[in-house]
Amino acid sequence: xxxxxxxxxxxxxxxxxxxxxxxxxxxxxxxxxxxxxxxxxxxxxxxxxxxxxxxxxxxxxxxxxxxxxxxxxxxxxxxxxxxxxxxxxxxxxxxxxxxxxxxxxxxxxxxxxxxxxxxxxxxxxxxxxxxxxxxxxxxxxxxxxxxxxxxxxxxxxxxxxxxxxxxxxxxxxxxxxxxxxxxxxxxxxxxxxxxxxxxxxxxxxxxxxxxxxxxxxxxxxxxxxxxxxxxxxxxxxxxxxxxxxxxxxxxxxxxxxxxxxxxxxxxxxxxxxxxxxxxxxxxxxxxxxxxxxxxxxxxxxxxxxxxxxxxxxxxxxxxxxxxxxxxxxxxxxxxxxxxxxxxxxxxxxxxxxxxxxxxxxxxxxxxxxxxxxxxxxxxxxxxxxxxxxxxxxxxxxxxxxxxxxxxxxxxxxxxxxxxxxxxxxxxxxxxxxxxxxxxxxxxxxxxxxxxxxxxxxxxxxxxxxxxxxxxxxxxxxxxxxxxxxxxxxxxxxxxxxxxxxxxxxxxxxxxxxxxxxxxxxxxxxxxxxxxxxxxxxxxxxxxxxxxxxxxxxxxxxxxxxxxxxxx
Length: 567
Fold this sequence. Notes:
mainly alpha, Growth Hormone, Chain: A, 3 domains, globular
């Protein structure tokens, strides 16, 4: 057992951990780094939509621009490369801090750059900054997670650092969400608001500067040795071929998406996101998901029963090392999953790809729906949206998370998974009703006398409708997130937990993100109500897949019980 492992196991008492945590600069650094992680995500994936809506940018264009957040879904691809990376100019700060500081500076520059641009004349530049900012932010998240894990001396410290990170991240979501919306109303515009957000991001550099550089050379070398032993079990040429095919598939997907995004933002009046999504969407999913799965399956069949030898020790070049890290990050976890689950991998992947579809596909259109003025949009002010969505709504998500945890214990994981899928689909109908003038919502508020309760708190009928819909939707989102994480955690192998969870988790929002431009075009043509009805209907797909997975797991459990015949 290494010294690192031993120290991780020997955690001091909670009281001493609390006292030392108040004096330890690592915990303040972690708080600031958590803010630095959460702020760009909140701005790029949400606040930009509110800004563009206030500038009368079309919903279809906002849908295309939402692809800038795809970097957060695909960051697992370059995560292994960052394990040994250091930024040349800042090497004196140490390996991890040499990456944190320049990334924070560049992200701050991107956020500040938004303040200098006009959406009416500089939309392409805004898109470019959003793509760059998302890529830098996703990379920063990887380095922060690595620093958090490496800097902890024991499990207790790791738990405390993680709690500080989550607190900072949620604080950043509030600053970049509700704070930005309220500021934009108070300041009478977005330029100064975005500039302030950029300044806040630059201030978080202090977290990286006070963060001590982890001293984990022993654990890094041990991880590298384990990674090498895993990959060397398979013929070098075969694994390089599979990695090359995966990279070609991903490269083609990025090129296809990027080319269309540039074309659509340059000529939004002639762009056709609907036909593009229908024709290219399935191919992109095949290239990004099926390619590594089929490559893993081919490699497993090819080497089954054969002696796997590479011919003695080899000192790999940088290119070979990069190929091996990609193999270990993408192909090897997929091989283990397929080998363990067999044909059930297909249903699991389909469930993962579609489970959060009903609530993820319209995420970029929340602000256009709340604040817009056409197509059934509600026309609320930024401050009203901040109150309903970012304050009351966040409390509802937390309540949903707590309720989800309780129901998983009471009902079991798979029944709760089915129920959460039903709720996620059904809550889209709440917004469809709002887009049609809220007849059903008004009847519900009157029947339950909630309209009287809202009036006592000073909220008028319009705000009562919005708040009730957001409460229902966010409760379902919190519930679904807990249940889904429980399911995802149950199918990963603890030995590959980090890479398998990152790989499968990255696929969760893929279809929803790919479909957003088509949804934006549909909203532009038909209004919001038909889209919410459509997403509710499409939400029945994960309901059916959840029921099938529940049935499959039940039969597998019965089959594995001695003396019990499956029914």
